[in-house]
Amino acid sequence: MKTLTVIGGRELSGEVRIHGSKNAALPILFSSLLFSEAVEIANLPAITDVGAALALLSSLGVKVTKTGRDSILLDPSSARPAVCDPAVTGSLRGSLYLLGAAAGRLGELSLPHPGGCNFGARPIDLHLDVLRTMGLAISESERGVSVRGRPRGALFRFPAVSVGATVNAILAAVLAEGRTVLTGAAREPHVLDLIAFLRLAGARISTPSPGTVVIDGVPRLHGITYRVCPDMIEAGTYLLFAMAAGGSVTLRSAAPEQLAPILPLFSGMGARIGVGVDALSVFRKGRLRPVRVETAPYPGFPTDLQPQLTALACLADGESVICDPIFPTRFGYVSELRKAGAKIDAANGRALVAGGAKLTGAEMIAPDLRAGAALTLAALAGEGESTLARYDLIERGYADFCKTLGSLGARVRISDGVA
Ligand code: EPZ
User: Fold this and answer.
1) Residue 229 falls in the annotated catalytic set
2) What pTM does this model have?
3) Residue of 19, 28, 93 best suited for mutating to test ligand 1, as the one with most atoms within 8 Å of CB
4) CA dihedral (53, 58, 63, 66) positive or negative
5) Rounded to an integer, what distance in angstroms lies between the CA atom of residue 217 and that of residue 198?
6) In angstroms, what is the span from residue 120 Cα to ligand 1's centroid?
């Protein structure tokens, strides 16, 4: 297993190129099963979750051809239902999207249990409810979930906003018989990017009001070339790194409008933020102010930045309160932060951060992808040497993570520990 070593206490400065969004790339890649001809996807991040998605698509007969540094041609013309490798489906939450995508054109699929970050319960009831409402036969067993049948248009109101269940419903509805109307649907930029991609390929999808998606089934989709949108969570992560370490960092190939709803929160903590057409600059020299925030579906504060913000709050002057009602048990990393000297407690979905910590180097273990980024933030800001085991979890969602930090002046290295 790889370990990241960080010598903290240095400011960051320079430029970061933001990669394509992991959480847009996964639904877009899996939606290739809906096509009857080849489709090219570009700006794909070189992360292990994308590799896993491509392996699953190959196992279903999709022909995968690399066409450039970050682009892939997917030819699903000979795709068929097949057995998916449980080790691969179990390595990412996004494998769930195969249910909606397979239902759309293959007509059936047996999916071993999906995986995903283990920060607590990851139910799939909303996925199954909306697919059943669309007339699909869903059965669950100890091996996983299977879907069978032809989807037909339906009305469905989500009782809770779910990114994944919204994606699955859209994938099942694109080729369905008739109209599907989703209300209470997710509005994250990565969901909107999937919709933009499918519309370009001939799907009839509209979003008449926030949280409402109307899909009129079409007989087929036509092949296109599409660039995945920038990753707002990657951008937010590097922005928070710069705020923690101090210095001046510019994010290129970003989509500042994605983060617009939360930039005032960062400015309120003491960051000076500049916004360009496809760039964001952040500068932080002075003291950090505490924060009080609760995560919420977009355009609220994203739960995927909660660990990183909580780690930053450890450095602020005064007490911060960070609540995560979306994933109340997503605070497993707090015990690791305490090893670095953080004064923080977490319970009942809330972190109380005393602030004013003088973080020092520590030996830490990343519990999951975004927590790994949070512990890296603490290591960058802390004095001394830190090690972070399970760097492979970071590689799930951040391309060129160590190289990027090094290019910003951080003293980092990866060692391949004995497995
Ligand atoms: C997606 O997960 C993301 N993953 C997560 O990012 C992200 O944290 C999450 O959305 C919220 O933004 C991908 O896009 C691959 P949800 P997802 O369904 O779809 C409850 C990362 O770091 N719920 O929006 O699984 C659920 O428990 C990952 O990139 C049900 O109750 O999240 C949660 O409280 C981590 N039943 C809330 O809804 C269901 O069937 C939102 O979850 C589904 C979800």
Assistant:
1) no
2) 0.98
3) 93
4) positive
5) 12
6) 11
Quote the CA–CA distance of 12 and 284 in Å, as a whole number: 10
Q: Which atom of ligand 1 is nearest to the CA of 326?
A: 34
Atom of ligand 1 nearest to the CA of 167: 19
Topology of domain 22-227, per CATH?
Answer: UDP-n-acetylglucosamine1-carboxyvinyl-transferase; Chain (3.65.10)
Q: From CA 214, how far away is CA 324, in angstroms rounded?
A: 30
Among 117, 229, 314, 402, the one annotated catalytic: 117
Cα 325 from chain centre: 18
Span 176-200, average pLDDT: 98
Distance 326 CA to ligand 1 centre (A): 8
Distance, CA of 382 to CA of 378 (rounded, Å): 6
Cα 160 to averaged position of ligand 1 atoms, centre (Å)? 11
Determine the pLDDT at residue 118. Answer: 86
Please report, rounded to a whole number, the percentage of residues in the chain having pLDDT higher than 90. Answer: 96
Res 417: pLDDT: 66
What are 97-116's pLDDT values in tens digits? 999 999 989 999 999 999 88
Instruction: Report the topology of domain 2-19+287-416.
Output: UDP-n-acetylglucosamine1-carboxyvinyl-transferase; Chain (3.65.10)
Which tokens hold the place of 315? 């450095």
Question: Phi, psi (5° rounding) for residue 391?
Answer: -60, -20
Token pair of 376, please?
Answer: 């890296």
- Cα dihedral 239→373→233→114 (10° resolution): 180
Task: Please report, for the chain, the start and end positions of each structural domain, with discontinuous segments joined by +.
Answer: 2-19+287-416, 22-227
Q: What is the pLDDT of residues 251-289, one digit of tens each?
A: 999 999 999 999 999 999 999 999 999 999 999 999 999
Mutate to test the pocket of ligand 1, among 163, 305, 309 (most ligand atoms within 8 A of CB): 163
